[in-house]
Amino acid sequence: MTVFITGGSVTKFGELWGTSPRVLAHEVFENALTNAKITKAKIESLYVGNMLAGILGGQEHLGALFAEELGLTDIPAFHIEGACASGGLAVHAATLAVASGQYKTVAVLGVEKMTDYKPEVISTALMGAGSDEERMAGATFPGLYAILARAYMEKYKVSERQLASVSVKNHFHASLNPNAQFRNVLTIDTVMKSSLVADPLKLLECSPVTDGAAALIITSADVKGAVEIIASEVATDTLGLAQRGSLTSLPATQTASDKAYRKAGIGPKDVDVAEVHDCFSIAEILALEDLGFYAKGTAGQSILKGEVTLGRSKHLVVNTSGGLKGAGHPVGATGVKQIVEVINQLKGKAGKRQVKGAKIGLTQNVGGSGATAVVHILKNT
Amino acid sequence: MTVFITGGSVTKFGELWGTSPRVLAHEVFENALTNAKITKAKIESLYVGNMLAGILGGQEHLGALFAEELGLTDIPAFHIEGACASGGLAVHAATLAVASGQYKTVAVLGVEKMTDYKPEVISTALMGAGSDEERMAGATFPGLYAILARAYMEKYKVSERQLASVSVKNHFHASLNPNAQFRNVLTIDTVMKSSLVADPLKLLECSPVTDGAAALIITSADVKGAVEIIASEVATDTLGLAQRGSLTSLPATQTASDKAYRKAGIGPKDVDVAEVHDCFSIAEILALEDLGFYAKGTAGQSILKGEVTLGRSKHLVVNTSGGLKGAGHPVGATGVKQIVEVINQLKGKAGKRQVKGAKIGLTQNVGGSGATAVVHILKNT
After folding, report:
1. Looking at chain A from residue 65 to 84, which residues have their Cβ under 8 Å from any Cβ of chain B?
2. Which of A285, A332, A357, A374 has the most CB atoms within 10 Å of its CB?
C-alpha cells in the first residue's frame, strides 16, 4: 500500500524555559492537522518518539499520555525509543502501520524537553544510547564522535577547516529558518577558535541541547498535495565503537540507505534535498559519504567549497533547516523534524531556504554513535 | 496479509539474581527460533518490549542493544514502551510490520530485570506509568488499584473472598507451571490473612516484582503448526484515574476487545483460553467483565465457584500460566509471555495445565491503571 504524508509541523527549537512537552505537542499536532486539512477525529493511531522522559523525568507511558493530552483518548498509542533516532523510528513504525491497512491515518509526534536539567545530567542521560563499556568508562558523545573524527582525519588527511565548514553551512541555513535555535552566521575562523570540547571537535561543531517538537500526519489516502514515502528503511550496528568494523563510516547508514535507494528505485544523484544527522561536524561528513553522495574522504572538501550550500549548490542541498547544529537537536523530535523540513521543501513552502524545483528528498536520522540509522526517501506527488 | 506465530518461549520467572537481561534474552530468542524451526538469519526485524531499563538503569536504545546481543546486527530494531503493556504493544507493532509486507519474519522480545533494585525504587519507577497528579500525590499502583477495588465492591456488593479467589485460582495454575515464580497453592483464608497492602488489597492479591523474558517469532509464512493472529487491537484511556468515566471497569479493555472480536469475527463465547492482566486481584475481575466473558458485577462469584479454573471449568479457562500473580510480572515481558502461554495451549503443549481441545485464545495486557490495553486473539491453523 502506498503511504503519504499530508501534514507536518515543527515548533520553534531552543531553550524553551516557559513551556512544557504537552504545550509543544499541542502546537505541532494542531498545526499538522491544519496542514493536512483534517480534524483529529480522523487520527486512528499515535506514534510518539522520545528518548529521555524516562531517564530524566521518570515518566514513561508516553503513547497514552500524549493521546490523552491531545484529546485522542481511546485510540491506539505507542512510545517508540531508539536514542536520537527515536523520531525516525516512530515515523517508520507509523509508515508500516498504515501500509498494513490496519490504520488509514495516523499521527507521529517527536518531542523532547532537555534544558530543564543540568548539562552533566543530560550528558549522562544521553549515554543511555551507548554501550556498557562506554558508559562505565565515562565516555560522552562528543568524545565518541571525536574518536570517529580523529580516525577519519588520519585516514583521509582531512583538515580541521573542512570539519568546521559543516557548521558554517548549517548556521547559514539556520539563519534563514525562523524556528532554528541558532540564527547567527559563523565563519570558519569563529568555529576554529571556539573552545575545544573533545579534540578535534570544537564547541561550534557540536549540536546543542534543545527543547522542541515536530509532528506528521501519515495516511494511505492519496489526497492532492501529499508527499509520498517511497522508502522507509532502518539498520543497526553495535552500540559501542570498539566493536565496529569501521571508524571512518557508519555502516548502519550505508545499509539503510542501500535498501532505501533500492526500494525507491532511485540513486543518490536523484536526491535534491537531504536532512542528515549532523550531531557533530564529522557526522555530516560521514553521512554524505555513507549515503552515496560523495566518495569516501571527499565530502569535507566539497562542503568547504559550498557544493551543498543553498544558493551555491548546483544540485543537492544538505540540511536546509540548519541541521542539528543550527536548528537544534531535541533528540526524540529530530527525526520527525527532518521530514517536516523535507516535505516543506518538496511542497515549495520552505520560504527563504527553498531549494528551487526540489522533487526528491532524503532524511537520515542516527541513534547513538551509529548503532541505529533510519533513512526515508520522499517524493512529490 | 495473514500473520502467524511460529515459535515462542519464556524463561523461568522469578528473582533471578544470577543472571542478566542479556542472558535471559538469549535463552528465549534461541528457544523461540528452535520452536519455529528457523535460523536467526531469517529474522528481518526485532521488536523489544521493555518499560524500566531507562528509569532504573539509565540504559535506552534497547532495539540496537538486543539486536547486537543476539547476533542480529544490522537488522532494523525497535524499543516499544507502554508501561506494563510494553510487551503487548511490541507484539502489535511486529504484527503490523509483518502485515505491511516490509518484513516477512520478525522477532519480539519482552524483557525486564526488576529485582536488582530496592522495592521503593521500583515502586517509584513503576509510577512512570501514571499521571502527574498521581505521581506527585505519592500514589503507588497497589493504591490505585485499591481505589478501583473499593469502587467496584461498593457498587456491586462484592465480598473480599471473591477478590481473594483470583489469587487462589492463579496460584493453583502456577503450581502446574515450571516457569512460574510462585508454585505454592493458596487457600482463600491464606490470602485473606496476608498483610494488607492497600485496603482492600492484600499482599497475596498483588503481583510480584519479577525478572524474566519472553520471545515470539512472527511471520507471514503459513507454515505447518503455526498459530494465526486473528486480531491485534490496542486502545487507550486517561493516564490517571481521576479523569476516568468509570472506576468499575477499564474502558480501554472494552474498546480494544470490541474491536478485536469484530476483526476476528468471533465473540467472547468462542474463546477457550485467556491470559488476562491480573496485576491485582480486582484487575482480573474487571478484565473478565470488560472482555465480555461475564456481566458486570458477576465475575468474582464465578471465579470463586471455579468456573474459569482448570479442571473445573466447563469451557473458558483463565490464566493457565498462573497469571501475573502466580507466574510473576516482569513488566515488559508480560504481554509477550501471555501469548506464549496461549500458543502452547493451542498447540497442545501446555503440559499439566493443558486445556483440552483449546482452539481459540485471547490475551489482554494492560498498561498503568488501564491507560493502555492490548488484546490479541489467536487461532489454531
Report:
1. 65, 67-68, 72-83
2. A332
Nearest-by-Cβ selection for B73 from A52, A76, A236: A236
Mean pLDDT over all residues of chain B? 97
Cell of B207: 503481583
Is B329 tagged catalytic? yes
Question: For residue B345, which of B379, B368, B371 has the smallest C-alpha distance?
Answer: B379
pLDDT tens digits, residue range A49-67? Answer: 999 999 999 999 999 999 9
- Amino acid code (one letter) for A15: E
Distances (CA, A) of B149 to A63, A172, B96, B158: 26, 60, 35, 10
Give the single-character DSSP code of A315.
S
Max Cα–Cα distance, chain B, nearest Å: 57
Q: Burial level of A150, CB count in 10 A (0-12/13-18/19+)? A: middle
Partners of B135 on chain A (C-beta within 8 Å) are 58-59
From the candidates B26, B84, B173, B277, give the one annotated as an active-site residue. B84
ipTM: 0.98
Do the beta carbons of residue B274 and residue B245 sit within 8 Å? no
Dist CA A95 CA B100 (whole Å): 9
Q: Is the Cβ of A124 closer than 8 Å to some Cβ of chain B? A: yes
Chain segment B160-198, per-residue pLDDT in tens = 999 999 999 999 999 999 999 999 999 999 999 999 999
Instruction: Give the helix/strand (H/E) hosting A23.
Output: helix A21-36
